[in-house]
Amino acid sequence: MNQPLAGYAPAPVSARMENHGNHMLKVALQTGHDLLARVGSMVAYEGFIQYEPNPPAVRQVARDWVTGEGAPLMKCSGDGLLYLADYGANVVVINLNGDGISVNATNLLAFDAHLTWGVERVKGLAKFAGQGLWNTRISGQGWVALTSRGKPIVVDCGGGENETYVDPDALVAWSPNLKVKGKRSFKAQSLIGRGSGEVYQMAFSGEGIVVVQPSEDSTDRLRVRG
User: Fold this and answer.
1) Which stretches of 2-138 are DSSP H helices?
2) Which of 5, 43, 160, 214 has a CA that sits 20 to 30 A from residue 56's CA?
3) pLDDT tens digits for 126-137?
4) Closest Cα to residue 108, out of 173, 43, 31?
């Protein structure tokens, strides 16, 4: 019976975080190297691993999640292998080498607890979305895992004069050094987006990347409020 299933067995550990297939994350946990992960994302583990939902460090930051766009997190600690998933979504693993990334909270799966992180308002969008758009910014030396509803595309903005436009409901993450602004579009409303009213896009420019998923989020991130 083991022979037909051999191809699905876990591969030897080669990194702190790595994919097991397209839809599962494998994390090698060690004492003193804790992980923050989305609550409910654990699907299996080996070894001795403890979980603490909503730890004090998360509660302190969560006070800024005034718009309800935050992700409930748990602290994972101990020694062993931890497997995480999010309803079959694709998993994207990123090794931050002193860089940063701004992530839509609904696409945040896990990240090293020692990384610097916090919730920030995306500048330039308040007039389009009432209170604006809030994202989780993570930076430092360490690992981050994102989810995508389908295989994502990573767009390199290239630093040129041309802007990159993205439907906010399909946006996963972007380089925090990019310039961001909102754009209204009436003529395109029958071609993109899911709403029947005004359509909004986010325009990015500068040096950096934008990660876009091929499926829109279940709730509009930019909409007329009032």
Assistant:
1) 56-62, 126-129
2) 43
3) 555 544 577 899
4) 173
Q: What's the alpha-carbon Rg for the chain, to the nearest Å? A: 18
Give the three-state DSSP class for 8: helix
* C-alpha of 171 from chain center: 9
Matching residue, tokens 């020694």: 79
What span, in angstroms and rounded, lies between the C-alpha atoms of 130 and 26?
A: 39
| Residue 106 CA: distances (Å) to CA of 89, 136, 186, 198 | 11, 10, 27, 23
Q: Measured between alpha carbons, how far is 38 from 23 in angstroms, rounded to an integer?
A: 15
Q: Are 202 and 169 in contact (CB under 8 A)?
A: no
pTM: predicted TM-score of the whole model, two decimal places: 0.85
- Three-state DSSP class for residue 60: helix
